[in-house]
Every structure is written in C-alpha cells, then in structure tokens.
Amino acid sequence: MSDAAPSPQRASVLFPMPLPEPFDYAVPEGVRVKPGDHVLAPLGKRSAPGVVWEVGPDDGKRTLKTLDDVRGGPPLSASMREFIDWAARYLVEPPGVVLRAVLRSPGALKPSPTETLYHSTGQTLIRLTPARRAVLDAVEQGPASAAELGRRAGVSASVVKGLAEAGALRAEEAPVDPAFEAPDPHKEGIELNPVQADAAATLRRLVAAGGFQAALLDGVTGSGKTEVYFEAIAELMRREPEAQILVLLPEIALTQAVTKRFKDRFGVEPALWHSGLADKERRRTWREVASGRAKIVAGARSSIFLPFTNLRGVIVDEEHDPTYKQDENLTYNARDLAVARAKLQGAVCVLASATPSLESLVNAEAGRYVHVVLPSRAGGAVLPDIELLDLRENPPEKGEWLSPPLHKAVAETLARGEQAMLYLNRRGFAPLVLCKACGHKMKSPEADRWLVEHRYTGRLVCHVTGFSMPKPKACPECGALESLIGVGPGVERVAEEARQRFPEARVEVFSSDTAQNGDDVRSIVSRMEAGEIDILVGTQIAAKGHNFPHLTLVGVVDADLGLAGGDLRAGERTYQTLVQAAGRAGRADRPGRAILQTWNPDHEALQALANGDRDGFLAAERMMREMLGLPPFGRLAALIVSGPDPAQLDEACQLIARAAPVSDGVQVFGPAEAPLGVVRGRWRRRFLVQAPRNVDVSAFMRAWMGRMKPPSAVRVVLDIEPYSF
Ligand code: ADP
Fold first, then answer.
1. Which atom of ligand 1 is the closest one to the Cα of 192?
2. CA nearest 723: which of 630, 657, 633?
C-alpha cells in the first residue's frame, strides 16, 4: 500500500430497531462513507439496512465486521440526526426506534421509478400506414409511454416502437412521479382586514428576525388564522427560496378543501403525508422531502419525522388537538416535537388554534411564544350564540335523545332552508348492549370495554381493539331470544330519531365508520357544502375545521360526555371540542346558533362556554393545575406495565416499584390499574410520575428503566406527558 492510501475508516451504524446504540463496522477499502449515508451492514445472520451515525479512524484494536454495501438515497442531514438523538433522549427510547419512525416509508430509498416516454422527432416518414399516422397524431397531445400512445391511437404498442426504430419518435427515460412544483410566494393572497394584517406583520417580523422563533396564533374559529399563517409561509419562501415548510394538521383536516386553499394561495398543491396515502405516494413525498425538492408539506402528526434538509418553518394548526398525541408504536406529542425541532433547526414555529392548550397559553404568557390574537371572525360572520339546554327541565320524550326545544330549533332551521348539525362524539348505534331478560352486558373479549352496537353493519364492535362480531340472536348468558338491546345513544341512533322526526329531511351520518377514507370525507363535505344534506349527524370528525356556509344550527346531544373520566384535561378538552363544534355554525353571512343539551348546566366548562368567558374558564383551570402541580406547572410521565398473567405482573410491578430512583421532588404513584385494565389478553398496570417543572423527567425515567429487570413476558411502555391521568 502506498503512503497516500487513506487510513481505514470505522463507521457507527444506527439500525431502525430497538437496539441500545449504534454498532461499529469497518469500512471496506476504497469505499468512503459519511454520517447520514444509508448502508447495509451485517447484523446477526443477515444484512440489515441502517444509517451511518459517526465516522472515525479504524485503529484496528478491535476486529470489526465489515459494511456490506452503501445504498443510494439522500443522506439524512446533520440536523435530522441531531433531532433523532434529541427525540430519543426526550422520549426515553433507543435512537433506533426514532430512526424507524423516520424511515417508515417502505422502499423510500429505492431510486425513483422511471418509464420510457416517446417524443416526436419531427422527422417525416415517406410512407405511413394509417396505424402509424394515428400514433403520430396521438403524440401531438404530448409525449407518453408506448402503451399510452397505443391506447390514444387505438393501435398496438408495437406500432410505437416501430416508429421509434424508423426515427420518427425518440425514446426518453423520465421519472414516473412528477416532481413537486415550486410554490409561488409572490402570488397575491386575499385582502387581509386590519387585524389580520397586523397579525401577519408580526409573523413576518419573526421570520425576518431569523433563528428560532415561536408564536401562538390565537384566533376564534373563522378569524382567518390560515390566511395569516399563509403570509408567514410566503415570507419564509421569499427570503429563502430553498426553505422547506411543514404544516401539521389534524389527520382529518387533510381534505381536498385544505389542499385547494394551498393551491389557491401558492399556485401548487402541498406535498401530503398521512395514513391514507398509498405506499407509492408516501415514497414520493418522503423522497422529495429528503432531496429538498418538496417545499411545502401538509401532514399529519408523523410528518414531524420526515427527513427535511432545510426546514425553516413549522406550523401546527389546531395545536390543541388530541390527535397530535400518538400512542401506538412510539408515544409522542407532535406539537411538542414540532417546537423542539424548530428550536434545534433555528426555524420559525407557529402554533394556531381557536382554543389553545393551557400549555401553549402559559408559554405565551411567560414570553416564550409571541402571542398573536385574532378576536373576531373575518368578514361579516359572527360567532354563534351558545345556549345551554337543561335536560332536567326539558327531558327528551321516552326513547328519544333530542329534547323538545332542540327539535323545534331543527324544524325552524330546516324551514328557513338552512342546515343543522347534531353532534355526538359516539360512533355506532348504542354504546352498550344488554340482555333485557338477565341483565348480561356484552363485553369485549379483548379489552376492558363494552361492545358498541353498530346497526348499519349489524355488528358489535370493540372501539379499543377493533374486535367485532355479528350481533347474536340469543343472549350468550341466559339464551333468551331477541333479548339483546342497545342502551344509550350513538350517532346512528340520533340519525334514526332525526329521520323519524323530520321525514322530509336528508339525514346523513358523518363518523369514521361512514367516512373511512379521504374520498368519503370529501364526498360528505362537498354534499354538505352544496346543500344536499339537511341534517348532518356527526362525531368529532364533523366538528373540526370544516366550513359549511349554510349550516346555522349545531345541536350538541350530550355536552356532558367527556367531563367524566380520568383525563386531567377533561374540562379543557370538552371546552375545546364544544367550541369547535359550535364554531361550525354561522360561518358565512347568516348568524349561527349552538344548543348544548346537558344534565349538568352548572359545570364551569359549560358555563364559561355559554358566557363566552374563555379567560374565566382558563383562569380556573390554571389555578387547579398549578395547585396540584400538574402540567404545564409540573411534569408527568407514565409507565404502563403489561403482562399475560396478573399474578406475575403484580410481582413484576413490586420489583419495578423498588427500582425507582429517589430524586428530590419527584413522586412515584402506583402501581394502579391502568385506564384500560385489560387489552388483548394482557393485564395492564400503571405508574405515574409527577415532578416539578425544572426536573428532567426523561432523565429520571431513563435511570429507572435502566435499573429494572422485568421478566420477558412483561412489557414496559413509557409515556412522557401522558394525556390521561
Ligand atoms: P380560521 O383558520 O381562523 O378558522 P380561515 O382562515 O379558515 O379561519 O378563514 C375562515 C373563512 O373566512 C375562510 O373562508 C376565509 O377564506 C375567509 N376569510 C378569512 N379572512 C378573510 C378576509 N380578510 N376577507 C375575506 N374572507 C376572509
């Protein structure tokens, strides 16, 4: 070997799996790798894909296995790797688990697929058969594949290839997926009113200041928050044409309506990222984000893990929305990660909401976020009147769920040719099925929950695990025939009542059962917009973000739902949901009305809602949390411990409890039964950790996890800042 030969390299490779740390490999002679490169490396008996995390000299002191191969694909940027390491520390997960969330798009690293397109060469042939002439005519409409040209001309694809051999057509390889086009930041938006213009100017100033900046865009429903943050996006792009911007939206908001607004404003549709996309579309978005070509991305919570190379702005729309909290493979709150990622990258972060979370409001108050307020609806629209309807004084008739005054309000609305929405956040027909002969209740065999009757499908469904079965003809307990009855209302039952009461009206159910994909959502939304539905009976899917100009009445069937239960944010959440639901009414020129049925009209969340007293409500909520040391004034973490055998589980929990580190001010509660006591044959217990704000709760949990040795059948899952409590 000559002196000039580069010294041998050692590469640490992180694999997208739950391993404690990156592993070291020798880099083969003649190959160079750098951090962020995608490689294949031997792991056990196979060759596994991973990402180079660090590169150093190979001192030869240890015999290392050698990398198998370097793969193509855009390398993960330094800022992306930094974010992965940060998120792993914060969430107390091995970095490989976060990497797995980043690389989630199947086959994303394969080269972009291409196809052969045929172009006209302009060369004229002396003798042309009719088939060849038809193909040459067809190519006038633009270059296309042989199959497509054959189809256009009504001839076989071989004619196209013949023409290429004869020189009249030229073949060229082109990517199958069109690249995302660049948005136009100079296109004019709608004319902002003075308050909006002020808000937009504030955001533009933040952009101009450069570096990490965060703002809370706090505006009532319909005040034009979207229009205002569009201005921030435009400013970011005008200052830096290569800037990438992520707009996080609650999953369900990712409808055509939103895409269309982006297109109207910036001339192109955003790149999309959500669970409804086909693999092919996910790959395309992933690749275009990683290469820096996709400039505006609109995505659901997991898009916070997309491999941006130059992320300059992150918008979190409806920042309070509980769908940002993911609770399956990796437990995180995308809103919190968005702020952290913006901070790491020195980007601008805008959190928008009509009902901001207490966390964000406290951050704004403390000066960590700039507070931008839009106090009224844009144009002439006014906020709906919100009335509490005391069910104790106005009980519904037997077998019904809507009280007489609500029936009357619906009738009046329909008579004016306007639309009504009945809101009930309960899917299906009845939340509980019991036997009227013996009282037996139908329980999910997989979770500690009742089975919900779905009448449209004739099935009983577990809403936790998705288990479902046909509704039995006889009670499984006492054998009585036709004795199982649904108790309590779901949207299907409310729709049935609406149809009986208003036989002329077109009634439709809008829930995740009737709208299973983007097309269904679009269809219901566009029929609602076109006035083809008179009464929409919907769950929270109907309450968010939509803009229905003819909707003037929102009836909330059960405003008390959600106030009970162990969620520390129950009051806040109810308040937010009801504001969102009520906010659907009267979005255009006609005033709206919201009627909330309740057995509990004195509850402070409902009182605040009816009186439009958000500040009063928040002040009370704040005081309660501050007194109890709950977020955002203290920190919480939860440990869910589960196992197939309750006795073994309890024993393991005792050991886990003893392993808890002792730390100033940190309190460990539990083990107690988890909010869902049994799921799919696994019993679940929970520990809660409460700590003062200045304590690094992640570090505490990491230390604890490191000291416990649960048996292999027992699983421990960690949740930083859990929602339920
Ligand atoms: P938010 O995001 O606060 O709910 P949007 O940005 O969706 O509000 O605006 C609500 C509706 O009002 C949209 O149809 C929007 O186009 C319209 N709008 C907002 N600002 C203006 C304005 N300055 N002039 C005219 N229409 C506006």
1. 23
2. 630
